[in-house]
Design goal:
Blueprint lengths: L10 H8 L3 H8 L7 H14 L12 H4 L7 E5 L7 H16 L4 E5 H6 L9 E4 L16 E4 L10 E5 L1 H14 L4 E7 L10 H12 L3 E7 L5 H14 L4 E5 L2 H14 L8 E7 L13 E3 L2 H17 L7 E4 L2 E3 L8 E2 L17 E3 L2
Parallel strand pairs: 1-2, 1-3, 3-4, 4-5, 5-11, 6-7, 6-8, 8-9, 9-10
Antiparallel strand pairs: 10-12, 11-14, 12-13
Helix pairs in contact: 1-2, 2-3, 5-11, 7-8
Keywords: DNA-binding, Transcription, Transcription regulation
Pfam families: Peripla_BP_3
Organism: Victivallis lenta
């Protein structure tokens, strides 16, 4: 450390010297509470001894403040882990399609790359992401206009949020089963897909409606790392406990796909009003299932498209109040069953920078 040539000249070199990540160094130099005070002090001491000063993250100035229209470059955050997730795929495709339509320059940035190098978003006009966002990025994105799509970690923020009305989605699924005469049901989800399952709005919406209907239901949670045979036996046990007649609400299309194939493997036949599965998402994953599966359509593509428009509005209006915009889900019953589309009644809301539209409701 006495030789100037040995002094770190970047956050990456400080991180390497201390055996920590670049993100930790960045957070420490910005006095973030996301890391311990001991580590903050250690990093700041090394930086001071070396005469190192990190770049600051300035608040983006609006066109009104600068007197000129800034060049837009949006950062689209994603997580490669979600590459096989049909909902994440639809969100990303819709976001990029909308940005391309509007001729807005954008860059893709993986969560891993941002974690290693927070400076990747330093010159971004705005950031858009979905449930790939992680809590420790909160400090990194501070001061940058940002929009979250279908994100449940609402206590982090602040950000503009665009999502479906999850409680209504669960209620629509329950209504379908109740209307079909099911007084016994199975509610099932995969651990990593349902954030805080005990209070998740989609699951809670289903639970409340089933209790109102005085219907009995059992809950089955599984982990993708578990032995598939374990879940198969749990599913079989639940169905047999109900005498072979039950309605099954699968949290999302990935779960519905697993449930339908598990039923086939166990020798069960899905039959109307006897043993049915209803899903939530309405992506390509379940469209080839036979017999077809009814689903609560969350209008994922529309949510993502509106989120892009909302981000551009936020960039132009940085001082406006943060927005929570919810779109109404819709029950879609495939051909082969009576065709109907159902939307719950709810008051209208005004998305950022748009006229009031019939299928946006405020988050309460």
């Amino acid at each position: 450390m006495n030789d100037k040539q040995d002094k770190p000249k970047s956050m990456a070199e400080i991180a390497e010297m201390l055996g920590i990540t670049t993100t930790s160094v960045s957070l420490a130099l910005r006095n973030s509470t996301l890391i311990s005070s001991r580590l903050r002090n250690q990093v700041q001491k090394v930086a001071e001894e070396c005469g190192f000063k990190a770049r600051t993250y300035r608040r983006r100035r609006s066109a009104a403040e600068t007197g000129a229209q800034p060049e837009e470059k949006i950062t689209v955050l994603y997580d490669p882990v979600d590459s096989d997730d049909p909902v994440a795929q639809q969100i990303m495709n819709s976001v990029m399609k909308r940005l391309t339509e509007l001729k807005v320059p954008f860059e893709l940035c993986s969560c891993g790359d941002l974690y290693e190098n927070p400076l990747l978003v330093e010159n971004s006009t705005g950031v858009i992401y979905h449930y790939s966002f992680r809590p420790w990025f909160g400090s990194i994105l501070e001061g940058i206009p940002q929009v979250a799509i279908m994100h449940e970690e609402i206590d982090i923020g602040p950000w503009d949020s665009f999502k479906p009305n999850e409680a209504m989605a669960g209620k629509l699924a329950a209504n379908y089963l109740v209307d079909r005469g099911f007084d016994r049901a199975i509610l099932t989800w995969e651990h990593s897909l349902a954030y805080h399952a005990e209070t998740h709005p989609r699951l809670e919406g289903f639970r409340r409606r089933m209790r109102e209907a005085k219907a009995e239901f059992v809950e089955l949670e599984y982990d993708r790392a578990d032995d598939p045979q374990i879940y198969l036996e749990q599913l079989r046990t639940a169905i047999e406990a109900y005498g072979g007649r039950a309605g099954i609400f699968a949290f999302c299309d990935q779960v519905a796909y697993k449930v339908c194939h598990a039923l086939n493997f166990a020798g069960y036949s899905r039959k109307p009003k006897e043993l049915e599965v209803i899903s939530c998402d309405n992506t390509y994953l379940i469209r080839e299932l036979d017999p077809p599966v009814p689903a609560v359509d969350l209008h994922i593509a529309e949510i993502a498209t509106r989120a892009v428009d909302g981000l551009l509005w936020r960039i132009a209006n940085p001082g406006a109040s943060w927005q929570d915009v919810m779109l109404k889900p819709e029950l879609v019953v495939p051909e082969g069953r009576p065709r109907r589309k159902v939307r719950e009644n709810a008051s209208d809301a005004r998305p950022p920078g748009r006229k009031a539209e019939a299928d946006a409701v405020p988050r309460m």
